[in-house]
Structure formats: C-alpha cells, structure tokens
Amino acid sequence: MGATDSKLAFRKGVFRLFEERHVPKSADDYWTLFWTLPESVDDVYTLVGSTDIRKARDTAMENLETLIDKLIEQMTTLLNANTPTQTIQLLNCCRVLTRIIPFIFESPECAEWEDNFFWTPRPLDKTAVMPSPLNNNSTSDQKQATATTAAPTNHLLPPRGEVLMNLTLQSLFLAGFTLPQSMGTVESKVNYVIWETGVGSSTPIGSSRDNDMNRTEVLRLLTVLLSKSMYRSPSHILIKKDRWLQYMVSRTERKVVLAFLCSMINTSCKFNPMGWTAVPYNHIVFTDPREQLVALCLRVLLVVLDYRSHTPKETYHHNESIAGSAEQAQREDDTLVARLDAIQMDDQQQPHTETMENAFRYYLSKLHRAQDFQFLIDGIYRILSTPMQVRSRCRIIEINLLTKIGLGLYRPLAAIYRDHPKE
Questions:
Q1: What ranges do the domains of the chain cover?
Q2: Among 101, 112, 110, 97, which residue's Cα sits nearest to residue 44?
Q3: CA pair distance 196, 345, nearest whole angstrom
Q4: Residues linked to residue 190 through DSSP beta bridges, in sequence order
Q5: Is the pLDDT of residue 343 over 60?
Q6: Selection from 259, 264, 86 nearest residue 170 by Cα
Q7: Which Pfam families match (predicted)?
Q8: What pLDDT, on the 0 to 100 scale, is given for residue 417?
Q9: Which residues 6+ apart lie within 8 Å of 310 measured at CB?
Q10: Is the pLDDT higher at 409 or at 416?
Q11: pLDDT at residue 356 above 90?
Q12: What is the pLDDT of residue 4?
C-alpha cells in the first residue's frame, strides 16, 4: 500500500466501521478493501488503530460481525479455489483477524456475545460460501461432508469458531502458501504433511523463505485465537473452559493433530541459532524470519500441550478410562507418530480425539523410538548451549526465545515421563 490514495481509501474504510451503522452486507466494494488494499502487516496495524476497533466494537458491533463473516467467507473461497492461491489476500484476512480478535477477548461485556456469535450453529445461508470441512479432499467430498454435517442439525452451519479454527489449520498446510506448490494434489491444495524432517518424517519437502514467512503470519492468528485465557482472571479460568482451546485439543482430526504436532516440534528442534547469521549485533541489522517462526511454533506448542479441559471430576475420570483403554489397545502400534505414513492411517483405527482430554499430549506420549528422543535432546542442547558458545563471537541471542524453548520443550518431556514413568 505504497500509494497515498490507497492508504487514504483504506483509512476511510476503517472509519466507516464505526461512523456508519449497519453497513450493508452486499456492499462488496467496501468489504473487499480489507483484504485487497493492505500490502504488509505494518499497513494493517498502522491503519487499523486500537481506538478504531474499540469504537466499532462498542458502537457498531453489527459492522464488526459482518467484517468477520466476510473475512471467513473470503478465506473459505481462497482455500477452496482451484486457481493459484491469492497469497496477499489470504495473508490480509489473517492479519485483519489477528488485529481485531484481541479487542473482542479483552472486553468482559463481549463475553456473552462472543459465545453466541462464534460458538452457536448458524442458520443456512444459501447465498454464502459453504465452509469446507477440515479434511476436504475434493469438491464432491466437501458437498457430501457438508450435507452430512448439516442434516442432523436441521440445516445449520457449524459455529463460526469451528470454521475459523479449521480454516486457520488448513492455511498452515496449503500448497503454494505455507507449503511448496508441488505439495498440492489434483483434489486439494491442502495437504497435511510435516514441515521438516525429524519426528514422523525423513523426507524433506523443500520449504522456501516465503513459506516460512507465511507460516509465521498464520501462526500469529492461531496464537491469538488460543489466547483468550490471557484476558480472564485466574478464578474465571478455573470455572469456565476456553472454547477455542477445547476445540483445538479435543475436536481436531487425528491426521491434522499429528502433522501439526510433528511440524511444530521438528521446526523448533532443527533451528540453529548460529547459522549464517552469527555476526555481531545482527539483531540490529535484520530480523531472522526463521527465528520468529520457531518462537511462534514453541509458543503454540506450549499452549496446546499445557491446556487441560475443565470437565467435572467424574467426567474427567470417565474420559481418562476411555483414553486409557484405547491406549492399551494400541500399545503395540509402533507407527503412531514415528512414521509419516501413520498420518494416512484410517482414523477408525485410533480413538477419536473427543474421547481424550488433550489429543496433542496423547499422541506425544506415543513417542518411543530412540532416534526421536535423540533428535529432541540434540535440538534442545543445540539451542540452550548457544549462549555459552557465543560469548567469544559477540553474538547476541534473544533471551525470550531461549525462555520459550525451555518452557516449550519441558512440557513434551514431562508428558512423556508422566505417561511412561517406568521407561
């Protein structure tokens, strides 16, 4: 958005969000400004001010609702299109959502509205783009899955929160965006493959710098969606579950959990803090995009592994017994996480994630190969030993990144130790 006219037009569009009540949903020329005009994340954060969002939230909530619906609809269209991905448009959808969601979470007055708006099934709108299921493989499959989902609920669309979480996870595995273009198939551009070699994969996919930068932006959105507990008091967290996190850890499809979990772990453990950027005061000259990606991978990994649902005690024990019996039945399956082709296994062979308190911790506890543990240990050691090695090289490492790594990798090891205390 280098041209002054474009910036001015976008800024006027932001003003309209709170200056005009009930902006028509049919005003496509207006709504498309939000994903066509910005050219960078700085444009969004500079021109969509915090005061502007709060004004729209407090005085014209209906416009904010329409904007969110339009962004979700546009993301759905982009992800399901058979044409090459419009990268800038998908990025802008993620950026605008990342910008406005925290201002919804921060307001106690919006708590009831948020539950109703994001987590209540919606009546079928025949003019809207149908949201695709998380495991879409083809157009016909999408129609069939959507019809199957809608039938038991009298033709209701899934809640917006579920759709937005699914779209965000799909965006992390989108060929031509967060994956190399070659990873797409004839049936779908979404392909749940592991980003890096390591746990679960020995075949590199050849990711580019652009893929890493796009992953960073999508992970920012996912981090925001999973951050609702930051805006709650400790006492409130203990009595009411986080619907966003609950959906992520207990309703996400198994193959997505495995691909996501292995991608986060491998990307983090393969990071070399020295690399070719080991020059004095390099953080002043430039920012390493890989370092930003690793920090976000660790942050999201820590969030999903640390979350425990707040179910009643008797329900909790019931779920634990179900998961325990399922785990016993699968104890001899040595390809659960250790091999990439485990992701392609029939979902019926594994317990459904809804029977687990946390699917990410469950599958992480299945790690058992010596080379996987060695990979984790080498990755942890390489990063945490860097400060001791760089004193003579004048390399300055961000302390917060090391802290995230320490916290992020403590949880996987603790989960493994808890589930396999005798090993």
A1: 186-206+246-423
A2: 97
A3: 20
A4: 174
A5: no
A6: 259
A7: Hid1 (PF12722)
A8: 62
A9: 238, 239, 240, 241
A10: 409
A11: no
A12: 79
Is residue 409 within 8 Å of 380, Cβ to Cβ?
yes
Give residue for tokens 């157009």.
139
DSSP state letters, 288-332 = -HHHHHHHHHHHHHHHHHH------HHHHHHHHHHHHHHHHHTTT
Residues in the chain: 423
Measured distance CA(333)–CA(329) in Å, rounded: 9
> For 137-141, 199-203, 225-229, 370-374, which range has the lowest pLDDT when averaged over its residues?
137-141
The residues near 118 (Cβ < 8 Å, ≥ 6 apart) are 159, 160, 161, 164, 243
Full-prediction pTM beyond 0.70?
A: yes
Give residue 36's pLDDT band: very low, low, confident or very high (50, 70, 90): very high
- What whole-number distance in Å separates Cα of residue 135 and Cα of residue 138? 9
**Torsions phi, psi of 86, nearest 5?**
-80, 90
CB 346 within 8 A of CB 255: no
The two tokens of residue 197 are: 């070699």
Query: Quick check: helix, strand or coil at residue 359?
Result: helix
Q: What's the rounded Cα separation, in Å, for the pair 14 and 44?
A: 10
Q: Say if strands 122-123 and 156-157 run parallel, antiparallel, or are unpaired.
A: antiparallel
d(CA 263, CA 294): 11
Distance from C-alpha of 284 to C-alpha of 280, rounded to nearest angstrom: 9
Amino acid at 115: D
What is the crossing angle of helices 61-80 and 111-119, to 10°? Answer: 30
The dihedral of CA 314, 320, 323, 324: what is its sign? negative
Rounded Cα gap, residues 236 and 108, in angstroms: 11
Contact 395, 276 (CB under 8 A): no
In eight-state DSSP terms, residue 190 is B
